[in-house]
Design goal:
The structure is a single chain. The chain has four helices and five strands. With about 190 residues, the chain is α+β, with helices and mostly antiparallel strands. The protein has a domain of about 130 residues: Ribosomal protein L5 (50s Ribosomal Protein L5, Chain: A), CATH 3.30.1440.10. The chain has a five-stranded antiparallel β-sheet with strand order 2-3-1-5-4.
Amino acid sequence: MLISRLQILYREKIRPELKNKLGLKNIMQVPQVSRIVLNVGAKEAVKDAKVIGTIEKIMARIAGQAPVRTIAHKSIAGFKIREGMPLGVKVSLRGAAMYHFLDKLITVALPTVRDFQGVSRKFDKKGRSKTGVNYNLGVQEWTIFPEAESSSGNELVMGLNVTINTTAKSDEEAYALLAAFGMPFRKNDK
């Protein structure tokens, strides 16, 4: 696989600058993006099983790799959900594919959002794996990605969640990392 533009930028420019900016002694202490997880929940799949197949095809085009179905672990009668029923799809991106997606998200997808004012500066605290600070971004319509354009006449429009896992030890380190990549954060958001 080809090396992404952001991957080269991180190695040659961002990493040394962050080392100096954050006052770190070792280059290996510099935070980095470890993976990106895309997740789509589909309540429509409860009524129509064909919806999951359509979502899988579109997510595979957006992410560049095959998604995995997420299933219900227990039955919930009030929601008409049975154990083992597919409820959505997810994709975990690492390495070059992760950098390609991050580049596409920052430079192509987010600028196409109508009345875009920037993304929130709020970060999640350390996740279950305690590996670093995570950043969650909710996308209301996946049509901001060029691969999701409905050329086949399909009118299905879904939202998706983008989770960016970093190795940063604090919100400030994670913010500095994503801002160095060009993430369009809101100016007056704390």
